[in-house]
Amino acid sequence: MEDSMRFRSVADAAAFLAGDDAVKNLVEEEIDRSQIVNSLLRLRLRKGISQKDLSKRMVCDSSKISRMEAGNDLQLKVCDIKQYASALGVDVNIIFEDKTLPVAEQIKSHVYSIHEQLEQLVGIAKQVDGDELIIGKINAFYGEVLLNFMLRFSDSHQKLRIVSGHEITEQHAHEKRILEKDSSKEHSCC
Amino acid sequence: MQDEWELNLSLASRSAFSKFEKNHSREYASCFNNLNKIIELLEDGHTVIKLERNPSFFRSEGKGVYRIAQTGVVSAKETRLYVYPVESEKIIYVLGIGTKEGQNSDLNEAHKAVKALKK
């Protein structure tokens, strides 16, 4: 089998068949314009809900669901997105990400957001009224988040130290080895 | 078997696809966009059979051949992209593309290609 006839990218494949590189951009634009539709569809299927069931939950005709999923993002209304997601038990959060902000500010914003969501988990733990199974899972998840964050932070920090000319200390290397050893025993969460 | 799904174009006629794209570029892009959606759903772990008519633009044409329709294109020429997914290998063979008017012959060609592949 010729490798030249095998493609991972749909846009590349479409352009190859059309014999026109410009087609790649056209297909990629279509894909970009369908990100929300795609996410909704994947969500519905992941939850094992049929179009018919979802239409009942949304109190609408199933043809509406079909039209939403067949269209692109430009054809979606915000209220329909929220209704669709809500019918699947999912909240919709709209985040405005200011790309003009310095990276450091963007990182801070993400850290605050993660902290907020972790606090939500604490709230859930309080609500479950001593359910040890759920609290245990939340605790384990906290551990995974911390471990993965520290590993990734440590990895980036090491790269920074190399760039800045500071050699990694033996203590730092030792700490990293311990973290990596622990992570091999845990499931990755992100 | 590779980790990710892959497209195999060895059974597709480049001249036919090229001609179709020149005449119906919006429908062409839409069909491939929908193919991308199917691949993402397969990557999510859904089976080909489960995805049949769900989403509605993905339908079985028998003998393992599926058609992917264009969607969201105003005043579109009804278009079908014919594919043959092989789940055991995570490969989707792209077979052909055509309009509704030509579906009988397009489907005939698609089935022939799959039959030859299976030999």
Structure characterization notes:
The complex is a heterodimer of chains A (190) and B (119). Chain A is mostly helical. Chain A has two domains: 3-87, 434 Repressor (Amino-terminal Domain) (Orthogonal Bundle), CATH 1.10.260; 103-183. Chain A contains nine helices and one strand, in the order E-H-H-H-H-H-H-H-H-H. Chain A has helices at residues 10-18, 22-32, 35-46, 51-58, 62-70, 78-87, 103-127, 132-164, 170-183, and one strand at 6-7. In chain A, helix 1 runs antiparallel to helix 2 and helix 4 (51-58) crosses helix 5 (62-70). The radius of gyration of chain A is 23 Å and the shape is extended. In chain A, 16% of the residues are buried. The mean pLDDT of chain A is 85. Helices cover 41% and strands 23% of the residues of chain B. Chain B has a five-stranded mixed sheet.
Report a brief summary of the structure.
The complex is a heterodimer of chains A (190) and B (119). Chain A is 69% helix and 1% strand. Chain A has 190 residues and is mostly helical.
